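User: Can you write out an input/output pair for a complex, sequences first and structure second?

Assistant: Here is one pair. Inputs:
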Amino acid sequence: MGEIEELQKKAKEIRKHIIKMLGEAGSGHPGGSLSAADIVTTLYFHELRLDPSRPDWPDRDRFVLSKGHAAPVLYAALAERGFFPVEELMTLRKLGSRLQGHPDMRKLPGVEMSTGSLGQGLAAANGMALAGRLDQRDYRVYVMLGDGELDEGMVWEAAMAAAHYQLDHVVAFVDHNGFQIDGPITEVMSPEPVADKWRAFGWHVININGHDFKQILDALAEAKTVKGKPTMIVAETIKGKGVSFMENQVNWHGVAPKPDEVQRALAELG
Amino acid sequence: MSKKIATREAYGEALLQLGRENLDVVALDADLAKSTKTYDFGQNFPERFFDMGVAEQNMIGTAAGLAAAGKIPFCSSFAIFASGRAFEQVRNSVAYTSVNVKIGASHAGITVGEDGGSHASVEDIAIMRVLPNMTVFVPADAVETAGAVRAAAAINGPVYIRLGRSAVPVLHGEDFQFEPGKAVVLREGLDVTIIATGIMVVAALEAVDQLEAKGIRAGVLDIHTIKPIDVDAIVNAARKTGAVVTAEEHSIIGGLGGAVAEALVEHCPVPLKRVGIPDQFGESGTPAELLEKFGLTPGHIVAAVEEVITRKA
């Protein structure tokens, strides 16, 4: 099996985990978890230099899920990668669980930064990148932002700083699925033109289809060749990708599937 | 007590010294390095100094990432911005995560002076001490400031250090040992205890002398650590003297007075009077004029003492 087929297969497993854990939890955010699934899968099963047995290994690559409400996709990837047992996914959002509603770095191994309050992940990633440079370690720092999250002013403070400090070991994604809670981003508060904005802030910008593994892999490879500036990969994605009745439906931003919907979704995912 | 040094000056010096001793210490500023006194650190350790521009939220968030990767970041800005503008970043990226970030918050209180009410932080102690995992230091002089910086570096977690703009007398000798969470008994009293923090400690000592002339024997408890606060010392002082006056350059709501009231009501209810900034914002003026206008002079402490002892059982 080629790498892309393996990634596709893994992404399907991760999507099934997302559906099952959200169904069990009874609340949470399927839309933005599913839209980010192919990129997060590629990060954890191709890109990131990690050792699940040593989550605090100083030389590891870091991934910060700035859009922390997509916690299920992160948890599913961490479990599949071996940071904790897959069965634990079903404790999501339950009292006493290490799988908090939004990622908590103090509770779950593999979570690099507690996120959920939008706009803060890129700054933290920049800080990790600055520390890596000071320590002369060659780890890289990856970040995923939502497109609705770009409304937050702090994102642009951090965007400015990453370019100013020439953090070419920072690679960010925008999960550009076109929706935020209150509706389409172009109707609620348009961040467009997204790519032009990042370019104007001094970033190397790559536009891809965020569900095309070849394009994801190529973009990650290209980012490694960029010197002196951070890379932003603007990924066109589909909110709810992989589950037909969730796709492009803003109502699936923050509502968990009911048992029959879980079954229908799992049947579709195969 | 003749020598006068602003606590922000002492902070800058202590940070520079710490930078020499510990290579993991880094400093961040938000375009105020010459005012917060991190400038010398930046000149001496340019590779460990990050000016983040006028972007306090990003400064705090970046510091959280630096700390998550093993550094000991000291972030500096004016108290109003460090605690206010960046509050939610401090709350979620620093306190909630309990990462090893230190916040040096200068120009606190009304003694920021002529810059006026927009810049006079009257609420920062209250909003920092309510955060879980946060340690809050309010040093009274240069010696306590140096101790607070050193103690902050030794604590593995978030620390807020409140600093002033104006020069204040040096109270302590070089042999003073700064113990986090331990109040300092500066004067033993019998009739009343003045519990003070920051620049009001000096005012409290002056008040003691005035009170002595009136035959009132007042003690002074110097609270350099607002959180965790030294409940035992507060309760012991209240038991011994039967009345308490608090004094702080902060709103009377939620700061030292609030913390002392919480401790006393639960453990040893005695008459209490809070000297502090009334429930209002600051304004422009010289520090001396403002301290007089807002009721933060030794004379105001004396008046509070005379009132509170009339309520003793």
